[in-house]
Design goal:
The chain is built from 13 helices and 18 strands. The chain is of the alpha/beta class and about 400 residues long.
Length: about 400
């Protein structure tokens, strides 16, 4: 008996998670990736309890939890080092049922790829959606250099500048510049402990977090015109952040210049009318690119994958399933895009009076009630997948 065939365009976090979830639910899956290989690229990703519970559905949540490195206190600081708000991993676990887990994207890619049949992933294969087909009729068509593929379902997981999205919704304006650029880097450990933190200055921020393998994930953001670049990005970081509090100068000094990634931030300020058309559907940044202020981009892509697989189980009505997926995901992710943009606007304040007001409000709210940083994830990190998972069962702690 021939199984329904799903073609995933793109092998990022959303595409791979979708491939695994569909494979586990009974679909024959083909994941097409333009790059020649899945080399370790990118920096780190923060997986919140919501995406960990989503990964429980495909049996991977506990593997992610085992990589947690956050211990003790952390929180938000000013460039001088003054704590504006504190929190800790115990408070996160109590509030959301688990702590945040930071890991290298390549580690997560490896975990997901291992769950796919070896024949499912095809690298060096650029793909174009030629026709989305119709849910109750003709199959979708994907064009590749080796020939066209007819598919019962096509998943556009091809990122912020998605060609699949452009084909499905040609009149939509697509993503727009969010007003700031980001730098990210993986840095060798400093050989001394420090509290994880995100520090906010005048139209700029810096974040520093340890990983379980001893490395450090560092990221920064600053309000700049779109398209700006520096000849030496390490020197640019020193210029912008070299006088900020410890350990920021030491981390910049330890960063290899050629390992610094810089990207302008784009987001979907105008939501799509739907996440599907015909037999084609969007997940992740292709559907709802957002500013990284809530660290939820990858988390929402993982949620997408699990919810999609739930609604398009083989044997069901595909059209109804895709409509249910859009109905479940579009309102939640639209709210997330808007909330991320609101936080980005707050970060963008640059006048001294505005920054002083912002810092004072943060400090006051933190004193009145602990967990300011965590409260920004209320309604986000406490999400539950539509399927029951092993995380919902009582587990004995050793």
């Amino acid at each position: 008996m021939t199984r329904n065939h799903a073609v995933v365009i793109g092998s990022g976090i959303g595409g791979l998670t979708t491939g695994v979830a569909l494979h586990r639910s009974g679909w024959q899956v083909t994941v097409l990736e333009r790059a020649d290989s899945l080399e370790p690229v990118g920096a780190a990703i923060s997986l919140a309890p919501n995406s960990q519970r989503a990964l429980d559905v495909i049996g991977l949540g506990d593997a992610i939890r085992s990589l947690a490195a956050w211990e003790g206190e952390g929180g938000m600081r000013s460039p001088s080092g003054r704590w504006l708000a504190r929190t800790d991993n115990v408070a996160a676990a109590e509030r959301f049922g688990g702590a945040l887990v930071l890991l290298h994207r390549a580690t997560l890619v490896g975990i997901l790829t291992a769950e796919l049949p070896a024949s499912a992933l095809r690298t060096g294969t650029p793909a174009e959606l030629v026709s989305p087909g119709s849910a109750g009729g003709r199959r979708a068509v994907v064009r590749t250099p080796s020939g066209d593929i007819e598919a019962d379902l096509v998943i556009g997981a091809d990122g912020i500048h998605s060609a699949v999205r452009g084909m499905l919704f040609p009149r939509h304006p697509g993503p727009s510049y969010a007003g700031f650029t980001t730098w990210r880097a993986m840095v060798p450990g400093l050989g001394r402990p420090f509290a994880p933190h995100e520090s906010w200055g005048k139209g700029a921020l810096w974040g520093t977090h340890p990983l379980k393998d001893g490395r450090i994930y560092a990221y920064a953001g600053a309000v700049t015109p779109a398209g700006g670049r520096a000849d030496d990005e390490k020197a640019e970081l020193l210029r912008r952040f070299g006088d900020w509090h410890d350990p920021i100068p030491a981390i910049i000094a330890a960063t290899e210049p050629d390992r610094i990634l810089r990207h302008d931030v784009h987001h979907m300020a105008d939501p799509l009318p739907s996440f599907h058309r015909g037999r084609a559907v969007l997940v992740g940044d292709a559907a709802h690119a957002m500013a990284p202020m809530l660290a939820q981009g990858g988390n929402q892509a993982i949620e997408d994958a699990i919810v999609l697989a739930h609604h398009v189980a083989p044997g069901g009505d595909l059209g109804e399933g895709l409509a249910a997926y859009s109905a479940a995901r579009l309102p939640r992710t639209t709210a997330m895009v808007r909330k991320s943009a609101q936080v980005a606007r707050l970060m963008a304040w640059s006048s001294a009076p505005a920054v002083a007001l912002r810092d004072g409000l943060m400090a006051t709210v933190a004193r009145l009630g602990p967990g300011l940083v965590l409260r920004s994830l209320d309604g986000i990190a406490d999400w539950q997948p539509p399927q029951r998972t092993y995380a919902a069962e009582p587990r004995t702690r050793i």
